[in-house]
Amino acid sequence: MSISVDPRAQVSSRAHLGANVSVGPFAVIEDNVIIGDGTTIGPMAFIGNGARIGKDCRIHHAATVGHAPQDLKYDNEPTTCELGDRNVVREYATIHRGTGEGGRTLIGNDNFLMAYIHIAHDCELGNNIVMSSAAMMAGHCVVEDFVTLGGILPIHQFVRIGCHAMVGGLLRISKDVPPYALTGGQPTVFEGLNSIGLRRRGFSPKTLEALDRAYTLIYRSKLNISTGLAKVRDDASLMAFPEVQHVVEFFAASKRGVIGGPRLSGER
């Protein structure tokens, strides 16, 4: 086992570093930290108490993982910030640990989190997410797998973003974004299916057609969203697709409400 720690770094004796971990100059690693094999901690990075970082991650210059949450109620309770394997966290990103006794911020595998992003306390991110520079996520958000988030993007607390969605930059997200969707506009609305991304990930033409039909009923049929969803649920040919089932379940579980659709011809 080979661990490389720059002599100018500060690493707690109560931190556990796996095999082939590298720690750069002026990095700080606090107590109760676990870092998996092959992970690199860059210069001036801060890894806070309760951080759990998986294997083969790259934590870049001056990034912060596992610092105390920005929550006035937080009273130094033991909480964690848990990253899976092969995550890239670019420079000056900030990822905070959970708040309240046993709170957890959870991030899966293979995510690319660009410079200056912020992930607040108790968020849950899946796998293969791209979060562009200066996107900012408030507490308790949930982001499913294969989501792409544009830059300079504030996301309200408790918002959910469905899998394979693409959210444009410079938007404001205050409601849930459904799976497989493209978003844009001010206020933010559904602009269509993320067809290019879905094709690149191997979704079949039949699945794309079913999703497009479902979203046409939900957003483009001049029905209200509840009535459009009911028509989707009643269509056995659509509900045969697991992806359409997920769309219906996502809407049903929403607590903040889901973004609206585009303005249709003739509407004011």
Could you please describe the fold and organization of this structure?
This protein is α/β, with parallel strands linked by helices. The chain folds into two domains: 137 residues, Hexapeptide repeat proteins (UDP N-Acetylglucosamine Acyltransferase, domain 1, 3 Solenoid), CATH 2.160.10.10; 56 residues, Udp N-acetylglucosamine O-acyltransferase, C-terminal domain (Udp N-acetylglucosamine O-acyltransferase, Domain 2, Up-down Bundle). It is built from five helices and 27 strands. Strands 1-4-7-10-13-16-19-22-25-26-27 form an eleven-stranded mixed sheet. A hairpin with a 4-residue loop joins strand 26 and strand 27.
Question: Keywords for this structure?
Answer:
single chain; 5 helices; 8-stranded parallel β-sheet; Udp N-acetylglucosamine O-acyltransferase, Domain 2; about 15% helix; elongated; UDP N-Acetylglucosamine Acyltransferase, domain 1
Task: Write a brief caption for the model.
This protein is an alpha/beta fold and 268 residues long. The chain has five helices and 27 strands.
**Domain module count:** 2
Instruction: Please identify the oligomeric state.
Output: single chain
Largest sheet: 11 strands, mixed
| CATH architecture name of the largest domain | 3 Solenoid
Radius of gyration: 20 Å
Instruction: Tell me the strand percentage band.
Output: 25-35%
Shape: elongated
SSE class: alpha/beta
Q: Which homologous superfamily in CATH is the superfamily of the largest domain?
A: Hexapeptide repeat proteins
Look up the CATH topology of the largest domain: UDP N-Acetylglucosamine Acyltransferase, domain 1
The separation of the N and C termini measures: 67 Å
Report strand order across the widest sheet: 1-4-7-10-13-16-19-22-25-26-27
Low-confidence stretches: none
Q: What helical percentage do the residues reach?
A: 10-25%
What is the residue-averaged pLDDT? 96
Total DSSP E strands: 27
What's the CATH first level of the largest domain?
A: Mainly Beta
Number of helices: 5
